[in-house]
Amino acid sequence: MWQNPTRINSSFHEGVAKTSDIIGSSASRTCNVGGIQRRFVLSTVGACARLFTSVLSRTRVHNLQTLLDLVQSRPRDTPLVTVSNHMSTLDDPLMWGIKGLPMTNPKLSRWTLTAEDICFTNPLFSYFFRLGKCLPIRRGAGIYQPYMEDALDVINKGDWLHTFPEGKLSQEDGPMRRLKWGTASLIARASLQPIVLPIAHSGFEKILPENFMFGRRPFLPLPFKNITIVVGEPMVFDIPQLRRTAKAMTLTDAHRGSPNCKDKWNESVGKSFQDSNRVGFSSLSYDGATGGSAGGTTTASVEEKTMRWMYSHMSENLRCLLQELVVKAKQLNYVRV
């Protein structure tokens, strides 16, 4: 069934999973919010990130105040989900080294999803990244894997979660690839409605290029590069309305193909958080989301197709927003060169 995650049975992944569970849970117990170990890790990494972005690089941030306001003074019990493009393995933490963001307060720092097979490969790494408020994610294991429940708990507690919905980094100069459905599923399943903030950046791919020399990354990040970060406008998805629309589209089997970004963001879609506190969709359909005819299907299959439709359209609209911001960030960064 679509709801079940893909099983990964290799001994390597099983060993990593056991290590992550044991060490990760230990980090959670010993370093709750305010714990001295977590504060030390966050402060040290944050100071290094700030040194690099503020002193060793030329960083410019557009619409920074929006990010600062949401991080420091958003309504209580209101989660924040930030999403961004992924250009290098140092996007996080470098993008949070900008001036104004809190470095030493674990309550205000972001949680982020990190690849299990990179950051949680041994007990030391697992403990360090857990202290740094990183959550493991098993690539290829689906959006209902157990690790996603940890991310969902973060949102349901009203905390800040950052994701890279592309699923992997890309330094290619072209349109953003189709987003994974994990971020959309977290937003849709959360018991607290999160504010979603898209952020785009350009320049990190120059700091740690994948093909620097002989097809390898540089041993150390390259200094004195231009970095441009563009913070978008906050938005909130109207999940009840989305669910009703998705179910209606599934039951009526009204296929009109997958609309592009320009088609989707019409007057009923592109409303900001300040304008309406909701983002809904017009009566659009997506063949890949509904998966064929809904006639004669069971309640379970209708629900499955409904969720597919929601996740697909939410992800596509996030991709459109991010794409616009990425283009802007690249243009601004190019002007500075």
From TrEMBL:
Keywords: Acyltransferase, Lipid metabolism, Membrane, Transferase. Signal peptide: none annotated. It is found in: Membrane. InterPro entries: Plipid/glycerol_acylTrfase, Tafazzin. Its main location: membrane. GO terms for cellular component: membrane. The keyword Lipid metabolism applies. It comes from the Eukaryota. Residues 80-204 form the Phospholipid/glycerol acyltransferase domain. GO terms for molecular function: acyltransferase activity. GO terms for biological process: lipid metabolic process. Belongs to the taffazin family. PANTHER family: N-ACYLPHOSPHATIDYLETHANOLAMINE SYNTHASE, TAZ PROTEIN TAFAZZIN. This is Tafazzin family protein. It comes from Riccia sorocarpa.
